[in-house]
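DM from R.C. (forwarded with permission)

"hey, sorry to bug you on a friday — could you get me a structure for this? deadline for the figure draft is monday and I only need the backbone to look sensible"
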Amino acid sequence: MIRLFQNRRSWAAPYILFLVLLVVLPLVLIAYYAFTDAAGHFTIANFVQFFTKQEAVNTFIYSIAIAVITTLICLLLGYPAAYIMAMRSFSTPQVMAMLFILPMWINFLLRTIATVELFHMFGIPLGEGALLFGMVYDFLPFMIYPIYNTLQKMDVSLLEAAHDLGANRVQTFTKVVFPLSMPGIYSGIVMVFMPTVSTFAISELLTHNKITLFGSLIQRSFGEGGIAMWNYGAALSLIMLIIIGATSFFGQDDTEAEQKGGLL
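My reply, with the result:
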């Protein structure tokens, strides 16, 4: 037993078990159900059913569009906030950080329900606008903090060197700050886009089921019962996983080029 704990590799056993049971096994089951029918025979009919259903394809495209718009809004709102928090040395960044952290202490479903009540209170109809507002409200912190962490770790001597070389504030930002913040921007885009494209609870609450997103199709496929619907739902889930996985490779730039900060 003592030798077991002395071996550093043995400490990885709980994590390997966790990954196998809660990550690898569920993915294998999703792939199995996606490529089989109700009788357990291999088939691609589940994918054919999706691509031949105009309603499902339109819902998928609409969900991608909502996710892209939400990500862009979060980027436009989050980057200035992260920049202010990272570039000032007095107490304001700490106060701002706390204000962004506080809502995250509450479950996102409770925050969404509270948002619905606010819209009812002010007489604002629920719909696409409310959906976008709820998406941005829930996922904005996931855009701010990666950018903030990247900007905060930036070497100040690079900014001083840019000023010494005659660059003004705009040139320093466009040539040094913004290029060096690209890793944080990329991380923020992934962290916002991935949950946005797969969510279903926010759309159901903020639109009263008037707007259906791709996550709602998956949820209904598993909720309606029947092994055939489970196979179809698994196929939809696999398509979603492929899209989400593709985002992890989208927009990756050469790390060495990023470290140059755009200075040639």
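R.C.: lifesaver. The two ends are 58 Å apart (CA to CA).
me: no worries. The domain at 73-259 is CATH 1.10.3720.10 (MetI-like fold).
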